[in-house]
Each structure stands twice: as structure tokens, then as C-alpha cells.
Design goal:
Order of helices and strands: EHEHEEEEHEHEHHEEHEHEHEEHEEHE
Largest sheet: 7 strands, parallel
CATH topology: pyruvate-formate lyase- activating enzyme
Bound molecules: iron/sulfur cluster
Number of domains: 1
Shape: globular
Strand content: 15-25%
Strand order of the largest sheet: 4-8-9-10-12-13-17
Structural class: alpha/beta
Radius of gyration: 20 Å
Amino acid sequence: MVFIPRRVLFEKDALNYPLGQELYRRFVREGVPVRLAGSHNRITGIPGKTPGEAYLEAKRTLVVGVRRTLKFETCRPSAHYQLPLATSCSGRCEYCYLQTTLGNRPYLRVYVNVDEILEAAGGYIRDRAPEITLFEGAATSDPVPVERYTGSLKKAVEFFGRQELGRFRFVTKFTDVDSLLDADHRGHTRFRFSINTGRVISKYEHNTPGLQERLEAAKKVSGAGYPLGFIIAPIMVYPGWEGEYRDLLAQLRKTLGPAAERDITFELISHRFTARAKRRILEVFPATTLPMEEETRKFKYGQFGYGKYVYPEETMELIGSLFRDALAGTFPGAGVEYLV
Ligand code: SF4
């Protein structure tokens, strides 16, 4: 599942950086159409007559730019700050939270000024010393599909390896992880995989690797000494869900083998949607079968002034007790960071 863009757009300023120049030469050599563009925030001219086509073509478009804002967003509950290495990803998960945050700009973006970004991270670490500061590398992207072009994730992993008081984490559904295996991480990066039942993956997570491939990649990563984590999201309640989530954990345990005894965390996120996300998902995937009937959900007011539809309390209790029980049987030593 290698990401090969159909077109690459370069911000002019990106060509002042060695990575920008290298990527320009590489894509020209590989015969990928390249052109110059204005700001990476205002890209126009991506083909597509319907919202669905425009989304698909945007997900095949790479924009190489300079990250100008070096003020990082906060990132609760998984970290203190977001580390902006990339935006969007080549996957096309129907439920993706980026449907709303990126709206009609879902094209992939990478930033050539990674040294400046990491330098800014160093400033945030110094500000919070002697506390540890934790950065999330996947808040606005899945950073792995573009790693073969930029090497930014490896640079970040090694940067945090050198930080006494800085820690890093990111999450991926992708399995092209070999270039990260020999990174000098010193245990400061938690490498997480997003997993789900085979049914949820095949129905909703288009253009992403299958479950077993992700589990094999996780095993490799654990073999390279990284602390490991799994995000199970979105947890969906459908006929047979309990058995399938139990099977998922059993399959994970079996694939990891002795690695399952090491430092592993779980983050559990139940399926939820906002009115805005639902509108956008129906535009892009008009035939979606995502369960988005408001009357079956509880409405919860959100912190940014818009509410979300979550499972009712009884269902949340069922989800909680299923995972408590199944994890106690398969990963007794593992920590559950949160269930929402
Ligand atoms: S892999 Fe992650 S970031 Fe990419 S579309 Fe799927 S949910 Fe969104």
C-alpha cells in the first residue's frame, strides 16, 4: 500500500530547503507531474466533478510546503502538544475525523522545514522543564505514508531520543515501517497502531492495509525496542461485535507472541459523529453505511461549541465491560489510557 502521488505541488519557498529540492528532483525523475503553487493552505485546480471525486483526487495529491506557524496546538487527551510533520493521509476512512477539520482541503501536505519544527519543539520542552513534555505526531495526519519521501518521522524519533525531557508518540494504520526500525529512539517514542475488527476495516477504512499486516508491522516495531500502543477506534456496536472485538485482541496477542508481555498501552474510542461530520461524510460517501442515526445516540455538548452523538450510557457500559474483561484475559499487564 505504497503512496505514489498522481501530482505534486510545490510552494515556491519549499524549494529553498534541501528537502524541497530533493523532492522536486525525485518526482520529476519518477515522472510524477509537478507544478508550483501558492500557499499550501490554498491549493486549487485539483480535478473532480463531484465531492466524492474531488476527495479522491485530493487524497492522491501531495503538496510540499513550509510550515509557517511554529506555535503548536495542544493535544488532549493523548499528549501536551501536536507535532506538525504532515497533514492528511492517503487513506480514505469514511469516519475519519479529518473529514471535518480539513473540510474540502483533504490533500496531503508535508513540510520541508522539519529542523525548524523540531527546534520549536525543543522550546516547548524547555518551557515545561523539569516536567516531561509529550508530543503527538499524528494529530492531523497519518504520518507513515509520506515517510518514504520525507524521512521526517525518523528525524523526529531520533530528535526525541536525544531529549531528556521530551517524549513522542504517533499512530498509524500503515505498515511501511522498515525505515523506522533502526532509528535511535532510546525508548522515547511510543509507536502506536490503529486497529479494528476485520469487518470495520474492510467496510470503512479504504486504501489502508488489512488487520494482519498491521499486526505483523507492530510485531516488527516491538522487536526494534519501541514501546508499543494500540488505538482501537472507532469501536462500533453491530450484530456480533462482542465476539469480533474479542477475536481481534486474541489475534493481536497471538501475533505478538512474547512481545505481548512488554510495555503496551491501549486507547479505546467509541464511534461518535457530529452533525457537521455527518453532512460531509454523506457528501463524499453518499452510499455510506456508517451508523449515524441521531435517535439511537446520546447528544453530548462538546468543548468547542458543537455537540457530538455518542453511544448511550448503557452501550458505553457494555463496551467498557467487554474490553476490561477481554484485555484482562489477553494483556493482563497492559495499561488502558482512556475509554471514551
Ligand atoms: S488512516 Fe487515519 S488519518 Fe488517514 S483517513 Fe484513515 S482515519 Fe483518517
